[in-house]
């Protein structure tokens, strides 16, 4: 069955901006949750935001970090 979000995540009201992603369970270090942006220089900012990326907010106190770019 298709799931638009990994089962570890939920969408909820964000104090940062509108809606955001929230963990509903502990997520192990190194877990790949999905692709948030795809580089494409034909777009205004050079990136295409995926559905997952549409809920990806930026915190001044992040509790997760981007891994390696492949």
Shape call: globular
Low-confidence stretches: none
Number of strands: 4
Q: Find the structural class using helix and strand composition.
A: mainly beta
Radius of gyration: 13 Å
What is the mean pLDDT?
A: 83
Q: What order do the SSEs take from the amino end to the carboxyl end, as H and E?
A: EEEE
Strand order of the largest sheet: 1-2
Proportion of β residues? 15-25%
Report the helical percentage. Answer: under 10%
What summary fits the major beta sheet? 2 strands, antiparallel
Count of individual helical segments: 0
Calculate the terminal CA-CA distance, rounded to whole Å. Answer: 27 Å
Brief overview:
0% of the residues lie in helices and 23% in strands.
Notable characteristics:
4 strands, mainly beta, two-stranded antiparallel ribbon, 0% helix, 70 residues
Report on the structure:
By secondary structure, the chain is mostly beta strands. Helices cover 0% and strands 23% of the residues. The chain has strands at residues 9-13, 19-23, 37-39, 47-49. A two-stranded antiparallel sheet has the order 1-2. A two-stranded antiparallel sheet has the order 3-4. β3 and β4 form a beta hairpin. The model has no long low-confidence stretch (mean pLDDT 83).
Note the topology.
Elements: E1 9-13, E2 19-23, E3 37-39, E4 47-49
Antiparallel strand pairs: 1-2, 3-4
């Amino acid at each position: 069955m298709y799931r638009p979000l990994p089962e570890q995540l939920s969408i909820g009201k964000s104090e940062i901006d509108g809606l955001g992603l929230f963990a509903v369970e502990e997520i192990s270090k190194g877990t790949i949750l999905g692709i948030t942006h795809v580089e494409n220089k034909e777009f205004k900012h050079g990136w295409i935001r995926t559905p997952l990326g549409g809920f990806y907010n930026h915190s001044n106190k992040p509790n997760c970090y981007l891994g390696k770019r492949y």
